[in-house]
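Thread title: Can someone regenerate the structure for this chain?

I was given the following input by a collaborator and told the matching structure tokens would be attached. They weren't. Posting the sequence so someone can regenerate them.
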Amino acid sequence: MARADSVRADYLQNTLGQIMTLQRQVLDSIDAQDRRLAMFRGTLRSDMTEVQRQLMQIQELTGQSQQRLSEVQDRLAARERVPMVVDPELGGDTTGAAPEQTAPQSSVDEVYQVAVSLLNRGSPQTARTAFQQLLRQYPDHERAQDAQFHLAESWEGSDPDSAVAAYELVVQNYPNSPRAPTALYRLGLLAEQNGDMETAQVYYTRVVSGYPQSDAAVLARAKLNPDY
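Best answer:
Regenerated them for you:
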């Protein structure tokens, strides 16, 4: 009887020891999980802080660009409102005469550069407004061909049909521009994305035949002859 009690006691002691060991393991596991969770929370807070900092920086830069664009536009508009003064000694009619709209090179370049910056920073709508204003006021300026091209780019992500129309104007209005072959190639890509391979090949062919020495022609040939 005593031996049975001893065996039973040993069994209970071993079982209790196993339970205590398992409990320690569970507690250690919980403690490790708590430490990992705390580290994750700290990392998450740090990441969120960095994301918020970057967003604030982007908003600040975008706001600065928009303010700068507005200031340049105001200066251009002010120059356009300046009346023409004619020296009476030199002759000429001073009534009802409209001044010739000649944009200072630096001002137009500044509007263009701000618009490109806005486009690159992910503000296509604001950039589009600037490109459209530049084209409307100075359609013959040397920056007009670039503005028309970037205007088309600004539509690609939201309105492919408008992008197509804008790229077509690059080719139509500035056929001798370096932008023309690239615009044709982009038109081919848009047609291809729309599943219209026949139209895409027409555009690629126009690039190769009309601008054989351009970089876009190299890409167009690869589209026309993928196994070449």
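Residues 77-103 have pLDDT under 50 and may be disordered.
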